Amino acid sequence: VYKQSALNTTDVSDTTGNQASLAAALTSGGLGNEATFYFDDYGYVVYMADVTEELHYMLITGVDNVTTTGFESLRVKGVLEDGTQVTVNVAKVNGKAPGASGYTAPGKDTVVSFKVNADGNYELSSAVVASSNVSGNISKNNPAIAGGTANNDTIFVIKEGDTYTVYTGIANAPGVNTATGYAVKDSNGIVKVVFVTAGTVEG
Asked: In 3D, which of 77, 32, 41 has the Cα closest to residue 59?
């Protein structure tokens, strides 16, 4: 329950970048499904912003897409950022359940973001900011990867034999000769995650 004066309080939403009243933001779609509200000592809203959900990524390595009417389902194999290899049931892709209008199954060797719903099933999104192919040598301590810039927070998921080894930061990741894989970059070109699926690890 908000005080009437709170509804007239001017705020700055970091998702819209403009000023709007609390009531307008709640009714116009300026905020998402979850938001954080900041109150002053008198209980008035002084600022609000969308809750930003940390994205987690999966490299899809196998797809079982059942399209038989009445039996539609999707299971995928994939590699997560922590190097875990999983086989999971998928409830939705880009908000669409298997068999629904507009549903499209993801392809093998693509990177998606994901979350796990209350039933333990995965919900995938292909709306990754940028997923670029990695091709060539990855040099140790060289931040230039796939047209982006890696840093000390970049996660390297490197296939070695049948398993994946994870390194955090360019100072800790080994060089990889003739590497192939995929790099996820944010809107500023910073490389968030690198999945290396083939190559010769140095050292």
From this structure: 77
Q: How does pLDDT run across 22-63, given as a tens digit for each residue?
A: 555 555 555 555 565 666 666 666 555 554 457 899 999 999
Region of 170 on the Ramachandran plot (φ > 0 left; ψ -120 to 50 alpha; else beta): alpha
What is residue 17's predicted lDDT score, i.e. its pLDDT?
45
Query: What are the angstrom distances between the C-alpha of 5 and each of 28, 29, 42, 51?
Result: 19, 21, 11, 24
pLDDT mean across residues, the chain: 82
Written as six digits, the tokens of 146 are: 């796939």
- A 10 A CB-CB count for 116 gives 12
Closest CA to 161 of 109, 196, 112: 196
